[in-house]
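Pasting as-is:
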Amino acid sequence: MGIRTGREFTAGLRDGRTVYASGKRVEQVTDYPPFRGALASLGELIANVELVSGLVRFGAQEVIAAKAELTPPRAISATLWVLIPQSQVRAIQLIRELSGSGLIMTPTENDFANPEIATYLEKYLRGKNLSARDRVQLFKLAWDLVGEPFGSRQLQYEWFYAGDPYFTRGRFYSLPVVQEYKEIVTRLLHRKA
């Protein structure tokens, strides 16, 4: 099965499985208040990915247009220097919250090869459309991002790639576009109702 949309994922949760939380049966996991936060967190991750993706595409168009018109580009491309590190920090936080102990309490290949526990692993660690092995691999991939040196180095690289984070954010105040924003606010303040 390929990657599903958010709507397909949510619909897939309504599959008739019996789920218990705090000793009570949950009729619909998507309607159960304590579980809504997980869907909102996944939605936030998706929204941030789409935001960065859109900025990358628009920023590339902006640079091409600026070169053709011999004008300086606006701030869209440079905005990514601020947004990507912030989005990555937030993604890591959300992945930790959503994954819980699944990040570190994962069975090994030897556990799956052990006939005494393999059946239980396959039964209790599987997802709706995901084998237990694939689900464990997904958690191990998430761990590589949030808990291993590779992920930490990647975060450091993104955070400092554009230079000092305070300088990177502060330089936006001196861009010509700031004057445009000030003029918009001034017009709104002096607008007659």
